[in-house]
Design brief:
alpha+beta, Glutaredoxin, 4-stranded mixed sheet, 5 helices
Length: about 200
């Protein structure tokens, strides 16, 4: 009887140990974990192609003096897109008005560094001529045209429109009502990654 009881206890301990061991092997990570691409499989993009403030643009958007016209994209952006979606922010260290947006974008640039080509275009005193040139060039993407303000943020990807793969983009400018919140910016970045993987 004691031997039978010991056998039952041993079996119960075996199953309990197996359960604990196997439960430790299951993943508790979210489908939207940025450290891997598994979230892409079930992802539904939030933004589509259009000309409004909530769209990816393939031409200049509503509110820009060149609204509806084709964009002659900068060579370094087009070249970078051959590898990954592109994210940039133009700002200046010490600029109080652009600090919040710049910090958000830099944080996401680091978080998604495997999936996105990030350019931190800090045009501070002592910045390289390459950074200063790029920072000046990207004002062609100012959503509402001149004058250009910092921080200017941009996201670029590939998207299919009318059966053709095109460069799609969106930009925000601070300090004004065209800034973007952290959670909203993350959806734009994830959309860009998703579209890029579907259309590259």
């Amino acid at each position: 009887m004691n031997q039978n009881k010991s056998y039952k206890i041993l079996i119960a301990m075996f199953f309990a140990g197996s359960f604990i061991l196997l439960s430790g092997c299951t993943s508790t990570s979210s489908n939207n974990n940025s450290n891997g691409s598994s979230w892409i499989k079930n992802y539904s993009p939030v933004h589509s192609v259009g000309t409004g403030s909530n769209d990816f643009w393939v031409t200049y958007p509503v509110g820009n003096p060149s609204s509806g016209q084709a964009v002659d994209h900068l060579r370094w952006i087009a070249d970078s897109l051959k590898t990954k979606p592109v994210l940039f922010v133009v700002h200046r260290t010490g600029c109080v008005g652009c600090a919040d947006q710049a910090e958000r974008v830099v944080e996401f640039g680091e978080k998604y560094e495997r999936e996105v080509m990030f350019y931190d275009l800090d045009s501070c005193e002592g910045a390289t001529s390459d950074i200063k040139n790029k920072a000046n060039q990207v004002y062609m993407y100012d959503p509402n045209g001149a004058p250009g303000y910092i921080a200017l943020t941009g996201i670029y990807t590939y998207i299919k429109e009318d059966g053709e793969v095109k460069i799609a983009w969106h930009t925000w400018e601070a300090p004004n009502d065209m800034t973007v919140s952290g959670s909203d910016l993350e959806t734009w970045i994830k959309d860009a990654i998703y579209y890029y993987n579907v259309n590259k």
